Amino acid sequence: MKxxxxxxxxxxxxxxxxxxxxxxxxxxxxxxxxxxxxxxxxRTAEIADSYAKKYPNIVKAIHxxxxxxxxxxxxxxxxxxxxxxxxxDSDDWVNQEAYTKILATLRELSGGSExxxxxxxxxxxxxxxxxxxxxxxYTGMLPENKxxxxxxxxxxxxxxxxxxxxxxxxxxxxxxxxxELPKHTFYVDNIFVYVPLPYVKNMYYxxxxxxxxxxxxxxxxVNEKVMIKRIDQQIKVNKIMVEAVDLWKxxxxxxxxxxxxxxxxxxxxxxxxxxxxxxDENLEKKRELWKYIKEYDIRLFHHLRRGxxxxxxxxxxxxxxxxxxxxxxxxxxxxxxx
Length: 338
Description:
The chain has 13 helices and 10 strands. The protein is of the alpha/beta class. Strands 1, 2, 3, 4, 5, 6, 7, 8, 9 and 10 form a 10-stranded mixed β-sheet that branches. Helix 1 links the parallel strand 1 (2-10) and strand 2 (31-38). Helix 8 packs parallel to helix 10 (280-296), helix 9 (253-277) packs antiparallel against helix 10 and helix 10 crosses helix 11 (298-306). The radius of gyration is 20 Å and the shape is globular.
Protein backbone atom coordinates (compact mmCIF):
# COMPACT_ATOMS: atom_id res chain seq x y z
CA MET A 1 0.00 0.00 0.00
CA LYS A 2 1.18 3.52 -0.83
CA UNK A 3 1.41 6.01 2.02
CA UNK A 4 -0.26 8.90 0.17
CA UNK A 5 -2.36 9.09 -2.98
CA UNK A 6 -2.45 12.52 -4.64
CA UNK A 7 -5.14 13.16 -7.24
CA UNK A 8 -4.54 15.91 -9.80
CA UNK A 9 -7.78 16.78 -11.63
CA UNK A 10 -6.80 18.10 -15.07
CA UNK A 11 -8.87 19.78 -17.74
CA UNK A 12 -6.91 21.51 -20.53
CA UNK A 13 -4.02 21.90 -18.11
CA UNK A 14 -1.11 21.61 -20.53
CA UNK A 15 0.32 25.02 -19.64
CA UNK A 16 0.86 24.42 -15.92
CA UNK A 17 0.32 20.76 -14.95
CA UNK A 18 4.00 19.81 -15.37
CA UNK A 19 5.06 22.27 -12.67
CA UNK A 20 2.48 20.77 -10.33
CA UNK A 21 3.60 17.19 -11.04
CA UNK A 22 7.31 18.02 -10.72
CA UNK A 23 6.77 19.36 -7.19
CA UNK A 24 5.06 16.09 -6.20
CA UNK A 25 7.55 13.62 -7.69
CA UNK A 26 10.14 14.03 -4.87
CA UNK A 27 7.73 12.06 -2.67
CA UNK A 28 9.15 8.97 -4.37
CA UNK A 29 7.52 5.57 -4.18
CA UNK A 30 5.74 6.37 -0.90
CA UNK A 31 3.46 8.46 -3.06
CA UNK A 32 0.98 7.63 -5.79
CA UNK A 33 0.25 10.51 -8.18
CA UNK A 34 -3.08 10.01 -9.97
CA UNK A 35 -3.42 12.35 -12.94
CA UNK A 36 -7.09 12.45 -13.96
CA UNK A 37 -7.49 13.76 -17.50
CA UNK A 38 -11.09 14.95 -17.46
CA UNK A 39 -11.82 14.94 -21.20
CA UNK A 40 -9.18 17.53 -22.09
CA UNK A 41 -8.92 18.87 -25.65
CA UNK A 42 -5.27 19.96 -25.50
CA ARG A 43 -2.04 18.05 -24.71
CA THR A 44 -3.07 17.17 -21.14
CA ALA A 45 -3.59 13.46 -21.95
CA GLU A 46 -0.24 13.24 -23.74
CA ILE A 47 1.60 14.86 -20.83
CA ALA A 48 -0.14 12.60 -18.31
CA ASP A 49 0.81 9.48 -20.28
CA SER A 50 4.43 10.60 -20.62
CA TYR A 51 4.78 10.93 -16.83
CA ALA A 52 3.07 7.58 -16.26
CA LYS A 53 5.51 5.96 -18.69
CA LYS A 54 8.56 7.65 -17.16
CA TYR A 55 7.54 6.99 -13.53
CA PRO A 56 5.46 3.77 -13.67
CA ASN A 57 5.81 3.10 -9.93
CA ILE A 58 4.67 6.59 -8.94
CA VAL A 59 2.38 8.09 -11.58
CA LYS A 60 -0.93 6.72 -12.81
CA ALA A 61 -2.76 8.39 -15.74
CA ILE A 62 -6.53 8.01 -15.99
CA HIS A 63 -8.55 9.33 -18.91
CA UNK A 64 -12.30 9.90 -18.72
CA UNK A 65 -15.11 11.77 -20.41
CA UNK A 66 -15.53 15.26 -19.08
CA UNK A 67 -17.36 15.11 -15.75
CA UNK A 68 -16.06 18.23 -14.05
CA UNK A 69 -13.76 18.76 -11.09
CA UNK A 70 -15.93 16.74 -8.70
CA UNK A 71 -16.02 13.66 -10.90
CA UNK A 72 -12.24 13.88 -11.34
CA UNK A 73 -11.87 13.84 -7.55
CA UNK A 74 -14.34 10.92 -7.35
CA UNK A 75 -12.18 9.04 -9.85
CA UNK A 76 -9.10 9.77 -7.77
CA UNK A 77 -10.74 8.35 -4.63
CA UNK A 78 -11.98 5.24 -6.48
CA UNK A 79 -8.49 4.49 -7.83
CA UNK A 80 -6.43 5.46 -4.80
CA UNK A 81 -4.31 2.75 -3.20
CA UNK A 82 -2.74 5.05 -0.62
CA UNK A 83 -3.53 5.04 3.09
CA UNK A 84 -4.14 8.80 2.84
CA UNK A 85 -5.61 10.97 0.10
CA UNK A 86 -4.86 14.51 -1.07
CA UNK A 87 -6.17 16.64 -3.94
CA UNK A 88 -3.77 19.05 -5.65
CA ASP A 89 -5.26 21.12 -8.47
CA SER A 90 -3.22 21.22 -11.66
CA ASP A 91 -2.41 24.94 -11.45
CA ASP A 92 -1.22 24.70 -7.84
CA TRP A 93 1.93 23.19 -6.36
CA VAL A 94 3.54 22.20 -3.05
CA ASN A 95 6.54 23.36 -1.05
CA GLN A 96 9.33 20.77 -1.00
CA GLU A 97 10.52 21.18 2.59
CA ALA A 98 6.96 21.04 3.92
CA TYR A 99 6.23 18.04 1.67
CA THR A 100 9.10 16.10 3.24
CA LYS A 101 7.78 16.86 6.74
CA ILE A 102 4.22 15.89 5.74
CA LEU A 103 5.35 12.48 4.46
CA ALA A 104 7.57 11.85 7.48
CA THR A 105 4.68 12.68 9.80
CA LEU A 106 2.23 10.43 7.95
CA ARG A 107 4.80 7.63 7.95
CA GLU A 108 5.32 7.93 11.69
CA LEU A 109 1.61 8.17 12.53
CA SER A 110 0.64 5.27 10.28
CA GLY A 111 2.52 2.93 12.58
CA GLY A 112 0.93 4.22 15.78
CA SER A 113 -1.75 2.66 17.96
CA GLU A 114 -4.35 5.30 17.01
CA UNK A 115 -5.61 5.79 13.47
CA UNK A 116 -5.17 9.28 12.04
CA UNK A 117 -8.23 10.47 10.12
CA UNK A 118 -7.16 13.94 9.01
CA UNK A 119 -3.88 15.83 8.75
CA UNK A 120 -4.07 19.61 8.50
CA UNK A 121 -1.35 21.95 7.24
CA UNK A 122 -1.11 25.57 6.09
CA UNK A 123 -1.64 26.88 2.58
CA UNK A 124 -0.45 30.03 0.86
CA UNK A 125 -2.48 32.27 -1.43
CA UNK A 126 -0.14 32.65 -4.41
CA UNK A 127 -2.03 35.65 -5.76
CA UNK A 128 -0.62 36.97 -9.00
CA UNK A 129 0.80 40.46 -8.60
CA UNK A 130 0.51 40.48 -4.80
CA UNK A 131 3.69 41.41 -2.94
CA UNK A 132 2.51 39.92 0.33
CA UNK A 133 1.52 36.25 0.22
CA UNK A 134 -1.38 35.53 2.57
CA UNK A 135 -0.74 32.37 4.60
CA UNK A 136 -3.69 30.47 6.06
CA UNK A 137 -2.44 29.14 9.39
CA TYR A 138 -4.27 27.40 12.23
CA THR A 139 -1.92 28.35 15.08
CA GLY A 140 -3.76 29.15 18.29
CA MET A 141 -6.79 27.21 17.04
CA LEU A 142 -5.40 23.69 16.78
CA PRO A 143 -2.81 21.88 18.92
CA GLU A 144 0.47 21.42 17.05
CA ASN A 145 2.56 18.31 16.45
CA LYS A 146 0.35 15.83 18.27
CA UNK A 147 -2.74 13.73 17.71
CA UNK A 148 -5.87 15.46 19.02
CA UNK A 149 -9.67 15.33 19.00
CA UNK A 150 -12.40 17.90 18.37
CA UNK A 151 -12.59 18.57 22.12
CA UNK A 152 -9.00 19.84 21.98
CA UNK A 153 -9.67 22.39 19.21
CA UNK A 154 -10.01 26.03 20.20
CA UNK A 155 -12.21 28.71 18.66
CA UNK A 156 -11.81 29.14 14.89
CA UNK A 157 -11.57 32.80 13.94
CA UNK A 158 -13.71 34.10 11.09
CA UNK A 159 -11.99 33.36 7.80
CA UNK A 160 -10.00 30.45 9.23
CA UNK A 161 -11.52 27.31 7.79
CA UNK A 162 -10.17 23.88 6.95
CA UNK A 163 -10.22 23.91 3.15
CA UNK A 164 -9.34 21.32 0.54
CA UNK A 165 -5.90 22.91 0.25
CA UNK A 166 -5.13 22.33 3.92
CA UNK A 167 -6.47 18.82 4.42
CA UNK A 168 -5.28 15.26 3.89
CA UNK A 169 -7.92 12.62 4.67
CA UNK A 170 -7.60 8.93 5.41
CA UNK A 171 -8.70 7.34 2.12
CA UNK A 172 -10.96 4.70 3.65
CA UNK A 173 -12.77 7.37 5.68
CA UNK A 174 -13.73 9.15 2.45
CA UNK A 175 -15.17 5.89 1.16
CA UNK A 176 -16.92 4.98 4.40
CA UNK A 177 -18.70 8.34 4.66
CA UNK A 178 -20.15 7.82 1.18
CA UNK A 179 -18.62 10.97 -0.30
CA GLU A 180 -19.72 11.43 -3.91
CA LEU A 181 -19.19 14.82 -5.52
CA PRO A 182 -21.69 16.00 -8.16
CA LYS A 183 -20.69 16.00 -11.82
CA HIS A 184 -20.28 19.16 -13.91
CA THR A 185 -20.31 21.37 -10.84
CA PHE A 186 -17.74 23.87 -9.61
CA TYR A 187 -17.04 24.69 -5.93
CA VAL A 188 -17.37 21.03 -4.86
CA ASP A 189 -14.19 21.38 -2.80
CA ASN A 190 -16.49 22.73 -0.08
CA ILE A 191 -18.46 19.47 -0.09
CA PHE A 192 -15.21 17.47 -0.11
CA VAL A 193 -13.96 19.03 3.09
CA TYR A 194 -17.35 19.42 4.84
CA VAL A 195 -19.18 16.10 4.48
CA PRO A 196 -16.48 13.82 5.99
CA LEU A 197 -15.95 15.95 9.13
CA PRO A 198 -18.45 14.11 11.39
CA TYR A 199 -16.51 10.90 10.70
CA VAL A 200 -13.19 12.43 11.78
CA LYS A 201 -12.11 11.39 15.25
CA ASN A 202 -8.33 11.93 15.28
CA MET A 203 -6.53 14.91 13.80
CA TYR A 204 -2.99 16.24 13.56
CA TYR A 205 -1.91 19.79 12.73
CA UNK A 206 1.50 20.30 11.17
CA UNK A 207 2.40 24.00 11.07
CA UNK A 208 4.11 24.05 7.66
CA UNK A 209 3.25 26.11 4.54
CA UNK A 210 2.65 23.09 2.33
CA UNK A 211 0.10 23.92 -0.37
CA UNK A 212 0.56 26.84 -2.78
CA UNK A 213 -2.85 27.97 -4.03
CA UNK A 214 -2.51 29.97 -7.24
CA UNK A 215 -4.95 32.84 -7.82
CA UNK A 216 -4.79 35.10 -10.83
CA UNK A 217 -6.16 33.54 -14.02
CA UNK A 218 -9.17 35.36 -15.41
CA UNK A 219 -10.93 32.07 -16.20
CA UNK A 220 -10.35 30.69 -12.71
CA UNK A 221 -13.45 29.40 -10.93
CA VAL A 222 -12.86 31.62 -7.88
CA ASN A 223 -12.61 34.78 -9.98
CA GLU A 224 -15.54 36.92 -8.81
CA LYS A 225 -16.92 37.51 -12.30
CA VAL A 226 -16.75 33.79 -13.00
CA MET A 227 -18.45 33.00 -9.68
CA ILE A 228 -21.32 35.32 -10.53
CA LYS A 229 -21.64 33.70 -13.93
CA ARG A 230 -21.78 30.29 -12.22
CA ILE A 231 -23.98 31.34 -9.31
CA ASP A 232 -26.37 28.43 -9.96
CA GLN A 233 -23.54 25.98 -9.24
CA GLN A 234 -22.54 27.82 -6.05
CA ILE A 235 -26.15 27.67 -4.86
CA LYS A 236 -26.35 23.97 -5.81
CA VAL A 237 -23.31 23.22 -3.65
CA ASN A 238 -24.79 25.34 -0.86
CA LYS A 239 -28.01 23.27 -0.88
CA ILE A 240 -26.11 19.97 -1.00
CA MET A 241 -24.22 21.04 2.13
CA VAL A 242 -27.46 22.00 3.90
CA GLU A 243 -28.88 18.54 3.22
CA ALA A 244 -25.70 16.47 3.68
CA VAL A 245 -25.37 16.71 7.46
CA ASP A 246 -27.99 17.21 10.17
CA LEU A 247 -25.92 19.56 12.28
CA TRP A 248 -28.35 19.49 15.18
CA LYS A 249 -27.65 15.79 15.73
CA UNK A 250 -23.89 16.15 15.98
CA UNK A 251 -22.99 15.20 19.57
CA UNK A 252 -19.72 17.13 19.72
CA UNK A 253 -20.37 20.80 20.47
CA UNK A 254 -17.12 22.12 18.97
CA UNK A 255 -17.54 20.17 15.74
CA UNK A 256 -21.15 21.33 15.49
CA UNK A 257 -20.18 24.98 15.99
CA UNK A 258 -17.38 24.74 13.43
CA UNK A 259 -19.67 23.18 10.81
CA UNK A 260 -22.37 25.79 11.45
CA UNK A 261 -19.78 28.53 10.88
CA UNK A 262 -18.54 26.87 7.69
CA UNK A 263 -22.06 26.52 6.31
CA UNK A 264 -22.65 30.15 7.23
CA UNK A 265 -19.69 31.42 5.21
CA UNK A 266 -20.71 29.35 2.17
CA UNK A 267 -24.24 30.78 2.40
CA UNK A 268 -22.81 34.28 2.75
CA UNK A 269 -20.72 33.78 -0.40
CA UNK A 270 -23.80 32.60 -2.32
CA UNK A 271 -25.73 35.61 -1.05
CA UNK A 272 -23.10 38.25 -1.78
CA UNK A 273 -22.46 36.94 -5.29
CA UNK A 274 -26.17 37.31 -6.04
CA UNK A 275 -26.07 40.85 -4.68
CA UNK A 276 -22.82 41.74 -6.48
CA UNK A 277 -24.31 40.72 -9.83
CA UNK A 278 -26.88 43.51 -9.49
CA UNK A 279 -29.50 41.69 -11.57
CA ASP A 280 -33.12 41.16 -10.54
CA GLU A 281 -32.80 37.53 -11.61
CA ASN A 282 -29.96 36.83 -9.17
CA LEU A 283 -31.58 38.82 -6.37
CA GLU A 284 -34.54 36.48 -6.78
CA LYS A 285 -32.13 33.51 -6.56
CA LYS A 286 -30.84 34.94 -3.28
CA ARG A 287 -34.38 35.13 -1.90
CA GLU A 288 -35.12 31.63 -3.15
CA LEU A 289 -32.01 30.23 -1.42
CA TRP A 290 -33.01 31.65 1.95
CA LYS A 291 -36.61 30.53 1.43
CA TYR A 292 -35.32 27.03 0.65
CA ILE A 293 -33.26 26.95 3.88
CA LYS A 294 -36.26 28.20 5.88
CA GLU A 295 -38.53 25.51 4.47
CA TYR A 296 -35.91 22.75 4.79
CA ASP A 297 -34.88 23.53 8.39
CA ILE A 298 -36.38 26.57 10.08
CA ARG A 299 -34.01 26.28 13.06
CA LEU A 300 -31.04 26.34 10.71
CA PHE A 301 -32.54 29.33 8.89
CA HIS A 302 -32.84 31.35 12.10
CA HIS A 303 -29.37 30.26 13.22
CA LEU A 304 -27.79 31.48 9.97
CA ARG A 305 -29.79 34.70 9.83
CA ARG A 306 -29.11 35.52 13.48
CA GLY A 307 -25.34 35.57 12.97
CA UNK A 308 -23.69 38.89 12.17
CA UNK A 309 -22.76 37.79 8.66
CA UNK A 310 -26.23 36.46 7.91
CA UNK A 311 -27.78 39.67 9.22
CA UNK A 312 -25.40 41.90 7.25
CA UNK A 313 -26.01 40.02 4.00
CA UNK A 314 -29.79 40.34 4.26
CA UNK A 315 -30.33 44.02 4.94
CA UNK A 316 -33.38 45.28 3.01
CA UNK A 317 -33.42 47.56 -0.04
CA UNK A 318 -30.69 49.10 -2.18
CA UNK A 319 -29.12 50.77 0.83
CA UNK A 320 -28.93 47.46 2.66
CA UNK A 321 -27.32 45.81 -0.34
CA UNK A 322 -24.69 48.56 -0.49
CA UNK A 323 -23.85 47.92 3.16
CA UNK A 324 -23.64 44.18 2.43
CA UNK A 325 -21.18 44.79 -0.42
CA UNK A 326 -19.11 47.17 1.73
CA UNK A 327 -18.93 44.57 4.51
CA UNK A 328 -17.86 41.95 1.98
CA UNK A 329 -15.07 44.18 0.63
CA UNK A 330 -13.79 44.77 4.15
CA UNK A 331 -13.77 41.03 4.84
CA UNK A 332 -11.85 40.49 1.59
CA UNK A 333 -9.01 42.64 2.94
CA UNK A 334 -9.14 41.47 6.54
CA UNK A 335 -9.58 37.76 5.91
CA UNK A 336 -7.73 37.55 2.62
CA UNK A 337 -10.51 36.44 0.31
CA UNK A 338 -9.39 36.60 -3.30
